[in-house]
Amino acid sequence: MIFLLFIVGQLANAAQNKASTRTLPKPVIIETRLSIEEVEVKDGVLETTVEAVLALSQNELTTSNIEVLLLPVDQQQHPFTDIQFASEEQQTIGSFRAITKADGRIVAMKERKHLKTSCPLSKRFPFDGRTCELKLTSVRQQASSLLLRFHPSPSSITLSPTITTSKSHLVKVLPESCMFETVYAILSDSVLSARHSCVIARFFFSSPMIPSLIRYFLPPLIGPFIAWFNLFTPRFNFLLRFIILSTGIIIVFISSVISQSTPPSPTLSPLDQWYIIVSIVLFLFTIEFFITTSLIYHSHKYRYMSTGQGESTVRVKSRQRIERKESRRLAISAHNDVEKSGSYSSMMADVFLHSSDHLSLIATRIDLTARFALPSLLIFLITLFFFFHIYVLSE
């Protein structure tokens, strides 16, 4: 008896499951095709002019009694009403949309729209551009009753040859199907989560490397080059060296002001890092200039002190202070006797000339070292910079 009841229960459950399976609605498959006429990316906003074609899947279509009509845009009574672009701004172009009827029902629709949507910066300017998306969603019907997918052909997304972009070029468009969940309130105390169907056309924009190098990276390099050329001018011509160094700094400053029109980035962009490298090298050139100038100035001062003529009051006092210091140093030296070394004045002149030559020699060595060290440092930093970012791009 128990076994019989068990069999009856299993048969009842099977019948119930079969009945529930039969009551499940068959999902309507709508295939989409996008024809993109124009693309413009500016300040992180993607502007596109798109011709969208929505049609029932081939197994849903009939080939008899087909007619093409024009439906007013403000008329919303058609089976594709709930399928919309998930765009921040959209505007339908024209007053009518083309529809196709088969056996009296609408099976396809075509319309043109102008869309605006934000797209995040995928990688930092100017080595890469942005990743933008156009998403077509079903906002009312769930994915169990309606499925959106791209037309199963290479022409699911076609691009116009006249597409223009700003500061970047379109690398590729990747179409894909997707699902998204929406949580909305039915009553005041309850919520419902539903899965909806969607299709995405993902645009990859990349800034061309060579124009970016010429436009943004080469102008700041003129500053260090001019500053390096400064090391080949006479060290005693302070005014000429100062003018050349100032010219290099002004060029870098003007280049940085012009580059402010680039797309903003919340983090330190590669262009910012580039200006940091150039500024560090220019700062070292400036430090070298002031050190060399100071050494040359003191070298001239000691040489004038050796003559003892045409000196100012401050220089006379300085000369007397140095003389007292050198006299004390020579007095405690057993190997430096004033009588053996000559007169006091000639000995002091030799001291000043020796100091002058020593400072001039140091300035010359610093100049010669900077001629090779600073450009080598700049080349090393540039190589490290590009190696790092090219490696990041490859990743």
UniProtKB/TrEMBL annotation:
InterPro entries, sorted: Neur_chan_lig-bd_sf (IPR036734), Neuro_actylchol_rec (IPR038050)
Domain of life: Eukaryota
Residue ranges crossing the lipid bilayer per the database entry: 213-231, 238-258, 274-297, 372-392
Gene3D superfamilies given in the database record: Neurotransmitter-gated ion-channel ligand-binding domain, Neurotransmitter-gated ion-channel transmembrane domain
Keywords from the UniProt entry: Membrane, Transmembrane, Transmembrane helix
GO molecular function: extracellular ligand-gated monoatomic ion channel activity
GO cellular component: membrane
Official protein name in the record: Transmembrane ion channel
Organism: Pristionchus entomophagus
